[in-house]
Amino acid sequence: MAKDRIKLDDLDQSCSLEQDDYKKQLKKYQLELLNMQLLLREQKKNVVIVMEGPDAAGKGGAIKRVVERLDPRLCRVYSVVKPTPEEYQHHYMWRFWNKLPPYGQLAIFDRSWYGRVLVERVEKFCTEAEWKRAYGEINEFERQLTDDGSIVMKFYLHISKDEQLDRFKRREADPYKHWKISDEDWRNRRHWSDHNAAAEDMFEKTSTPNAPWIVIPANYKWYARVKVVKNVAETLKASLKL
Q: What is the CATH number for 71?
């Protein structure tokens, strides 16, 4: 049966949490996640978490809430930027293999190998044949991981175009957040529809039973953060041998 295509700009962005409820739920799921991490270190499994979404969607804030109560010796966060000259000389997946976590540990990728079918597709950093071929390559890569015991979770945080503009302006006005905004962010915004179309194709072609996409409306940061932490904790609870 064909999957219903996810339309990003049709997501219900009214989902929210009050502050007291946010704090209570966050504390609950962070404790569950810590307990699952301690169990994970004793098993021949690892956790690979992918975070994607438009600029200013709150990926960094969600990642912070996932890891802030964990044992830092057993987790790593990788912020993925454009390839180095050396990395350009290899297959685009090459730079990710040596960042995969050892058994018993967790790694989060703030942007990932999905750049090939997202920004690289939209900005024409690769050919059409290359990004179309990448869907199968990525599915096979993730199948190899899950066959070996990896728990792969993929989150896409989405905000409305108006919310993104508001966050961009707040970043520009805040001297402590200037580093979060660049000309590249504004350029990407001009291709909003193209980026959405690429992401919607990505969900359709790479959301698999072993590594499904979880798409989260993120206009309300508290809601999105709790949703991510809850999903990680519950997925680990369902996947690990208790």
A: 3.40.50.300
Residue 194 tokens, joined? 């193209």
Do 120 and 83 form a contact (C-beta atoms < 8 A)? no
Helix (H, G, I), strand (E, B), or coil: what is residue 64? helix
What is this structure's pTM?
A: 0.96
Asked whether residue 97 is assigned to any structural domain, the reply reads: yes
Compute the distance between CA of residue 49 and CA of residue 29 in angstroms, rounded to an integer.
16
Instruction: Confirm whether 60 is domain-assigned.
Output: yes
Torsion of CA 51, 56, 58, 64, to 10 degrees: 80
In a domain, 197, yes or no: yes
Pairing outcome for strands 106-110 and 75-79: parallel
Domain with 229, as residue range(s), is 8-12+37-236
pLDDT tens, residue by residue, 187-238: 889 999 999 999 999 999 999 999 999 999 999 999 999 999 999 999 999 9
